Amino acid sequence: LSGRLILTRSRQIYTHSQTVDHLDRRLKLAFTITLSRARSRLTEAIRVLGLKSPHRELARRREENTRLRQSLITTMARFLAIQETKVSTLAKRLGSVSPLRVLTRGYAVVTDCKGKVIKSASQVAVSDQVTIRLAEGNLSANITKTEG
Question: Distance of alpha carbon 47 from its chain centroid, rounded?
């Protein structure tokens, strides 16, 4: 009987040992699968985080800023060239009607003693003092005769 009991106990120990080995393999496999999935999730999280990196966004914005700055410089240069042409054209037009330019063609501006421009002979009387402005210099004159 004691030999039989020992044999039964040996079989039970062996069976339990087999069960423990089987459970150990299942546990290791489950752990390996869980670890592999966790590594995959971590790798994906790192990839997504890299895509949202502020360094990338800053680099992209710097490139955009550089492009926009260059565009602004080019546009402003074009705008200033156009404005310069307009100013030059207006200066020529203004110069052509300038009273000073008219004086260079031999005309004069006559003013009374108060500085008021004389446009008509009826604005002055004999013996009035007037100033005659020429292209180069001024003259003082006394009215000796008026007509018209």
Answer: 32
